[in-house]
Amino acid sequence: MASTFSSSSSAESRHSETTAGNFREDRFLLPDEEQTILSVLGLESTRRRVDVSEKKDTSANTDANANTNACELLRRALTSEAKEWAHDRHVAAGLSTCLMRLCTRYLLKEKRRGRALDPVANFHVRNGASLERLNWMADTSEKGLRMSAGMMVNYMYRLERIKDINEAYINDGTIAASSTLRSLL
C-alpha cells in the first residue's frame, strides 16, 4: 500500500483537488483518537491547555488545538527516521485503532478521478477483488513502516463475484470490502 501518512503538504495540496474525500479536513481524528494520541505520545495535558491569546470561544479553540496538536504529533511520529513509535509496544498499541481506521478510510474513500488513490487497491479492485482484511504491524521492516505504518492488506478474489466487483468499480467507483473492514470506518 502506498503511504499518505508521510506525504508533504505540497503533495497533500495536489491531492486535495483531485480526491473525493481528503485528509485536509478540519477534523479527521475522532475526539477519543486525539486524546489517545496525546496520551501515548506524552502530551495528554495539551488537550486542556488554552492559550490566552486565542479568541473567547475557548471550547472550540481547545478542540481545534487538540486536533492540530494530535495530528502534528502523529505526523511527526510516523515520519521520524527511527520510527520509535513502532518499537514501543504501548505506543503502537495505542495508535493501532486510529491508524487502522485512517488506513481503511484511505483505501476505501480517498479517490482520484473516481478511482482508488492507492495504486495497489486500484489494481486489485479493478481486477475484481474485494478488500478483505487489514493487518496491523504485518510489515515492520524499515520500508514497511515508512510506506504504510507497517500495515498490509489482504485482497480476496471470489470467482463468482469478480465480474460484479469489476463492473461496480468501473461504472461508479464502488470499492468492494468485507464488513469487517468497513466496520473500521
Automatic annotation (TrEMBL):
GO terms for biological process: acetyl-CoA biosynthetic process; fatty acid biosynthetic process; malonyl-CoA catabolic process. GO terms for cellular component: mitochondrial matrix; peroxisomal matrix. Residues 12-27 have a biased composition (Basic and acidic residues). Residues 60-157 form the Malonyl-CoA decarboxylase C-terminal domain. Pfam families: MCD. Residues 1-11 have a biased composition (Low complexity). One of its GO terms (molecular function) is malonyl-CoA decarboxylase activity. Residues 1-27 are annotated as: Disordered. PANTHER family: MALONYL-COA DECARBOXYLASE, MITOCHONDRIAL, PTHR28641. This is Malonyl-CoA decarboxylase C-terminal domain-containing protein.
